[in-house]
Amino acid sequence: MSPIAFLRGVIGVARLEGAWIVRQPSWMIQVILIMTGFVVLLWAWGGVKGLGYMISGWMIASAFSTGVNIMGQIVGWGRVTRIIDLFIVSPITPIAYFTGSLIGSLAIFLVDVTIFTSIGLLTDYLSLVIYSLIASLLVLPIGVLLGLSIVFRVKKPTNISAITNPVASIISFLPPVLYPASILPEPLNVIACLAPTAAGAELARTLSGLGSPLDPLLLTAILLAWIAILIILSRRIILWSLE
Amino acid sequence: MGSGDAVIAEGLAKQYPGGVWGAKSVSFSSNYGELIVILGPNGAGKTTTINMLTTLIKPSSGRGLVGGYDIVGERDKVRRIVALMPQDASMSSDWTPYEAVKWYLVARGFSISDAGREARIWLEEMDLYDARNRLGWWLSGGQRKRVLAAMVLATRAPVIFLDEPTSGVDVEGKYKVWSAIRRACRDARAVIYTTHDMREAELVADKVVMIGEGRTIVIGKPKDLVEGLPFKYKIVLRGKANHPEGSVAELSVGDIMITYYRDRSDAIRALDSIETSASIEPVSLEDAYLYYVKMRGGGR
Questions:
Q1: B166 domain residue, yes or no
Q2: Of A130, A192, B51, B209, which one has the fewest beta carbons inside 10 Å?
Q3: Would you list the domain boundaries of chain A?
Q4: Average pLDDT over chain B, rounded to an integer
Q5: How many separate domains does chain B show?
Q6: pLDDT at position A194, please?
């Protein structure tokens, strides 16, 4: 496939699969309300430092769950409506399709980035926002590939979200993502950071000076290892047919 | 494109996990510029055959070539030259018809300007141009189906597969879809179309492939299949009626009995012997189907 054909594939899919972002804008109210609630909660309990942990943790969790849930929703709904078959039976490659689906729905994550950048400008956490964004870019593809590994293997497509939602929640909230790894005893803090979300959040914190018990190189290595393994497995993960 | 067979299916069979057979032996071929209708009752194997030929599922046995490419070994090449309208597919309520066709074409590699132009042409063909900017929420089920047909026909793919494209579409809408499909055939494209509606098949098909219980039963032009029957007229009797005389074949379907006659004079004599009111009708593709599937036990 030529680069132009690939690009057209991505643009076309992004416009179609991301149409709901524009047509159903009420999702934005939900995102803003939940975020505002968490910002107030963490600030009230942990002061400005608590807010810092929240910024890094939320951005990472948001990137990861966007990856998992968007794939779950788009592929799941595509299988229910059988619209995905129109894309499978076509010159569109799976990489172009999933990249387009992700780009089309990335506005969800961009709302988080915009709000946290505003908070970062009002506080001293702008560098934390930037490092969190960089770490998010490593966590996002992990979420996408993990999402894809689930969505094609659930027989009943209407059950997909019932599986991807809890997976995204467990991996986003259980390990040290919204709280620091330093409060966990050794070696549990190291083990917990094997979760990509925890590694991403700790990486952003340590690079911005908020501190982490783990070396940033080790945290980067964990994220890169996740990406490498999932890319190697992607041929088996992505099922670009009905079986 | 343009020479040789567009589609060749040779003994295509599919056994799903659990041992259920979706198709047992489906064979037919199709040329470019030809509209083939795969005809059969629900569960006959029409969709399974389409899914195998469009590479969505792998056949358990048999061979399939689309545009000269093997459906198993050259899957990506097949996908480049085909387009599929899946059975029961539903366009997103968040799309307008114009967006759906235009951006689907862009996704398949069209430039944005070409895609916009083709979208307008095919939406006009489907009589949807006035509704082109209406969201899916506000379209009827039949209109949504026609949008999907427009998306697929606008692709310029040399081989088009349409799995029951007119189910749920009103009579006027059906004629629009058929007209658009004929236009695709005039552009030397091959169209493979499934339906269980005999009247539809008789009206649109260049060639009919009748399948039953997963097997090809008979292939031919609708006219040839009807003319090849050993009878020309029928009398349909509903409810309790005495048995008419002189039939060469008969069939009971529920409380309906159909009796068949070699010629009109035999049928008129039979009609005189019936006490209830009935009428004589010439046989159609539906009778050809009943003859090959029910009377001759095709597919078993």
A1: yes
A2: A130
A3: 3-237
A4: 91
A5: 2
A6: 94
Domain-terminating residue out of B183, B203, B225: B225
Q: Measured between CB atoms, does B95 come within 8 Å of chain A?
A: yes
Of B56, B82, B107, the CB nearest to A16: B107
Query: Which residue from A9, A15, A83 is facing B91, i.e. has the nearest CB?
Result: A83
pLDDT at position B63, please?
Answer: 96
For A214-223, the pLDDT digits (tens) are: 899 999 999 9
Q: B57 and B32: one domain?
A: yes
With H, G, I as helix, E, B as strand and everything else as coil, classify residue B208: strand
Task: Provide the 3-class DSSP secondary structure of residue B262.
Answer: coil
ipTM given for this complex: 0.91
Q: Over 90: is that where the pLDDT of B24 sits?
A: yes
Q: Do B106 and A15 touch (CB under 8 A)?
A: yes
Question: Does A82 touch chain B if contact means CB atoms closer than 8 Å?
Answer: yes
> What would the pLDDT profile of A108-152 be if each residue is shown by its tens digit?
888 888 988 888 888 888 899 999 999 999 999 999 998 888 888
Domain assignment of residue B138, given as a range: 5-225
- The verdict on B49 touching A (C-beta cutoff 8 Å) is no
The CA-atom distances, in angstroms, between B292 and each of B227, B230, B246 are: 13, 11, 21
CA distance B93 to chain A (A): 9
What count of other Cβ atoms lies within 10 Å of the Cβ of residue A230? Answer: 18
**Min Cα separation A155/chain B (Å):** 12
- In whole numbers, what is the pLDDT of chain A averaged over residues? 89
CATH number at residue B59: 3.40.50.300
Residues B251 and B275 in one domain: yes
B272 and B130 within one domain: no
Q: Answer yes or no: do B95 and A11 touch at CB < 8 A.
A: no
* Residue B152 · residue B163 · CB < 8 Å: no
**Contact criterion met (CB below 8 Å) for A55 and A116:** yes
- Helix axis angle, A26-81 to A126-151, nearest 10°: 20
Contacts of A22 in chain B (CB under 8 A): 94
| B249 and B213 belong to one structural domain | no
